[in-house]
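Researcher: Structure for this, please.
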Amino acid sequence: MKKPLLLALGLLPALAFAQIQGESNFVQPSPEQNQAVPVEKKVLTEMSPMMNPNNPAFYAAKKGKTDGVDFIQVGRTFYDLQTNASSGRRVYLHNDGTVSLTWTTDPEGNGGFALRGAGYNYHNGTDFIRAGEGNGSRVDNFRSGWPSIGILPNGQEWIIAHDATNGGFRMSKNDSKGSENWTTGPAILQWPDGQRPIWNRAANNGNTLHLICNFADSSAPGDPRVISRNGVRGPMMYSRSKDAGVTWDKENTMLPGYDSTRILGGGGDNYAIDVNGNTVAIVTGGLADDVILWKSTDDGETFTRIIVDSFPYAPFDGLKFALDTPQTNDGSVDVLIDNNGDCHVFWGVSRVFDDDTTDASFNFFPATALLAGWSESTGVTQGIGGVVDENGNGTLDIEPGTWSSLQSGQVPSGLGNVARMGNTGLVNMPSAGIDAQGRIFVTYSAPRENDLSIDNVNCRDIYIVYSTDGGATWSDPQNITQVQLKEDAFPAIARRVDDFVHVLWQQDETPGTNLQNNATGGNNQPVVENAIMYAAVPVSKIINDEIGQGPGVGLERVKRGDAEIFRVSQNFPNPFSNETNVTVYLTEMTDVTLTVTNLLGQTVISQNLGTFNAGNSTITIDANGLSSGVYTYTLSTGTYSVGNKMIVK
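Model: Predicted structure, token format:
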């Protein structure tokens, strides 16, 4: 029995709720794991039925066919916080099948991340244009963050990111898709008196740009405090430009019904936006708030408010009893407009508790493990994603450090580390896309039972679920990443799906982030280089449930042909000078050896790499000491051998 922990949170920018109809289809961690955590407060309306955590169904790992997903490093960053909650649009699929990517990067990690900016890469149908060390470079010339990406009718790509120092945003454009010639424009959408609009989400329909944001808050002497509008402290605001960002006819405006009748405070990244033709959809959430959708069918001229999922005590200021632990959303939300113009909303689920009406604090349950979805066409809210019960014991075996945070700036006693992503639950950061057939795909981040770091924290992986009937029913989850001892988080996918779901995420070797989880004066979450990863996941394999740890992945694996049981990717970068990486896919735990031969067939490297678990693993080949030329690398399990050619510069 693990000891219950009560962990203190820092200041929260905003709070919110979500209602789940019917019984959950996902395992919830045992009560001693899912502890209430003190939070700054808020308020909501009528009571909704709560998921019964004592009688859950769950996603079990099932026997059957399995297949892997190849992925590649496309960028890097020492700044390791890609979002506080919602992912945003950072992957753009062009009509010709080429793909553009953006993320927050810092190539050095020195001086308070002074070189933070918008990273960029482009796949031209054959290769990514930035490889090796170059993939850490920026496209802008100011300390930026939280980029969104898109393309204009004239063929220029745009990236909008916030100005972390001065507030407001700046727009960078290149000459055409894939061009390395970027120009950064002047500041836009700034606020008088020094307040700082930041954390944007942006999307466009032709030359019409739509942007939502929030406001930074600072209690430092001389700094202005966050603004209040319509009784909402730190509100989300909406802006629109009809001329590709040159001028803005709507500048930091409030959406209708965004006021203190339901919301008392906004929150950074607790919102998402989607645009499909003249339809614009904006969704907000947060602990102890409603999930609210604003929909426009006239390109942002007017909006209709829809309360997708109401919190029973809205607006919640923390001065009301909430002893029934009502469900809420955790602020990580996404919205998608389907091919018929209907909206679909997704969010991570949490629960709250308040037994003290004398202050504005309340508690939430950070180990809640559920992803919810709502469809406009049906009006139904349901659980659509969760954590896989890999060992089949009927509970989720998640270690406390996975959902814990720092206490007074330190790792709580008895824990090896802490790794909670802000104030989100265990299942968080949904990102949604849709194909021409109307099939909806949603990725999310969640911890994996049998993948523990050296300090006893569960590593996260990227999962995917899909619906073939407009969101009425959903598949079981499948694990896209499944690399042992790697933390995969912050997924973002292209809203348009072709033959592939195009996925971007961040990967490193320590669960949690330096920005959120590093102890004061400690080195438990050091500043290290994080990989930005990309995968084009075949839709055919997703629909056939052939991708990792959902239905189709078994605890007992059946040996088949060489190509199905053992795969080796092409090395990357290639050509290279010093080191190159290879992704290995295994369907069972086994020893792996590496052999490198030259064109004469002579062995120049022979190395036993040790034992690897089932799934994808990354192997680094050290070519220091090898002369320039073409070599063959072969990875062997004893039963199977697979190799490719590599070029040393």
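Researcher: Any notable elements?
Model: The mean pLDDT is 84. The longest strand covers residues 440-452.
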